[in-house]
Amino acid sequence: MENPGTAHDVYVAGLKNAHAMENQALSIMQPQLNRLEHYQEVAAMLDRHIRETEGQIARLDEILAGLNESASGLKDTMLSFSGTMAALTHSTAPDEILKNSLANFAFENFEIAAYTSLITSARLSGASSTIPLLEQNLEEERRMAAWIHDNLPAVTEQYVARKAAGQRADV
């Protein structure tokens, strides 16, 4: 049997990491949304997922508060900064929409893995009552990853068509 203290420590660390990860996601998506001009379906989905991500952060705050814990301000700040830098780096690319789409797909799958592990640590630590909130976050990440996967061909086709027509294609 696992040491409940160890499982609890792993769970709390995972919650704080997930909180920082979601703040990083916001710092990546918001600049993308602000720059998008020609990919309205992507913009609509990013806007929706930004709102979902804000809800995910609220759910994580609720779980942390129930454990008499709080998010790590340092982790939140550092990952938000790195997300902003990633978004800024892609903004200089002539194929920004493609780079963002690929990076977003990878990040969504990272979030899926993080929540899958976090749900396991919740179960091991005896925090099963928090699992439905974590599963809600996981389902939203899965939905976003699936949307990116399913729409990547159309985004790529639109990018190539705009480029071939001599139109601005990056955002």
Low-confidence segments, given as residue ranges, are none
Helical stretch tally: 5
Characterize the largest beta sheet: strand count, sense, and whether it forms a barrel.
none
> Helix/strand-derived class?
mainly alpha
H and E string: HHHHH
**β-strand number:** 0
Q: How far apart are the first and last residues' alpha carbons, in Å?
A: 52 Å
CATH class: Mainly Alpha
Average pLDDT, all residues: 92
Q: Find the CATH superfamily.
A: Ferritin, core subunit, four-helix bundle
The helical percent reads: over 70%
CATH-defined fold name:
Ferritin
What would you report as the Rg, rounded to the nearest angstrom? 18 Å
Give a structural overview.
The protein is mainly alpha-helical. The chain has one domain: Ferritin (Up-down Bundle). Helix content is 82%, strand content 0%. Helix 2 (40-66) runs antiparallel to helix 5 and helix 4 packs antiparallel against helix 5 (131-164). The longest helix has 34 residues, at 131-164. It holds the Pfam family DUF892. InterPro entries: DUF892_YciF-like, Ferritin-like, Ferritin-like_SF, YciF.
Short précis:
By secondary structure, the chain is mostly helical. The chain has helices spanning 4-35, 40-66, 73-90, 96-125, 131-164.
Summarize this structure as a short list of keywords or feature phrases.
171 residues, elongated, single chain, Ferritin, DUF892_YciF-like
